[in-house]
Amino acid sequence: MDVASGGGPAPFLLKTYDMVDDSTTDEIVSWSSNNNSFVVWNPPEFARLLLPTYFKHNNFSSFIRQLNTYGFRKIDPERWEFANEDFVKDQKHLLKNIHCRKPIHSQSHPHGTPVDQERVAFEEEIDRLSCEKVALEKAAHEKAALLSASKLQLEDSTQQVNGMEQRQDKLLNYLETAIQNQNFVEHLAGNLKLWIFQHIIRKGVYLKLITPGQFQRIALWTTIAALGPSLGTFSTKISQTICFLNFEVHPLT
């Protein structure tokens, strides 16, 4: 029989009785209305606060297994209510009648032997390791998901950079071909002359001594500048181009 020294009730029973009988924690665990059973009202808080205080662990399943070992039974399918005919409020002396039941797989060992205690300890350790395993698997899954998301973001960024490089290469190839095409350059220069007349001379300024070759240079530079969206409006690009080439700009008199 699993008893304390002197033949008294087992420590597990005494601790369970004191825990249930403590009125300051009735919102977590308390006697039932008929006082011959007890109810765990809040299992998470029971495992978090009370089990470590009384039993040095926080495993609710292990606590239930120990109740079963001492002949307690769950009497309400809708809640965690347990009963034993010798576990009664204000009848603590009856606890001495509750004995640890002999395990089915340990017929060769008497009740309450160190073998039973070791078995319970092993079961508690197994439960603890199982909980740790679940927590580690969850953490590993979360890290794997985060790594996968980061990998997708990196692949997307790499594709964007590659696309920009390809567009840049195409643009440079196009400009290189355009520079070698005299008709294309002359066409740009003609359009530039018209634009200068419409947007600069009309505003009271004129360009002095711009040769056809200089217009071609302006046209090419303007084409390159116009392809950069961060340089502002097209008229700003023309003004920047003129200043860049150091052409003289005079007000009309």
From TrEMBL:
Coiled coil: 119-167
Residue intervals of the HSF-type DNA-binding domain: 51-75
InterPro entries, per the entry: HSF_DNA-bd (IPR000232), WH-like_DNA-bd_sf (IPR036388), WH_DNA-bd_sf (IPR036390)
Family to which this protein belongs: Belongs to the HSF family.
Annotated localization: Nucleus
The keyword Magnesium belongs to this UniProt entry's keyword annotation: no
GO terms for MF: DNA-binding transcription factor activity; RNA polymerase II cis-regulatory region sequence-specific DNA binding
Keywords tagged on the record: Coiled coil, DNA-binding, Nucleus, Phosphoprotein, Stress response, Transcription, Transcription regulation
SUPFAM superfamilies, sorted: Winged helix' DNA-binding domain (SSF46785)
Species whose genome carries this gene: Camellia sinensis
GO cellular component, one term: nucleus
Record function comment: DNA-binding protein that specifically binds heat shock promoter elements (HSE) and activates transcription.
Keyword Transferase attributed: no
Name this polypeptide is given: Heat stress transcription factor
Any one GO BP annotation for this protein: cellular response to heat
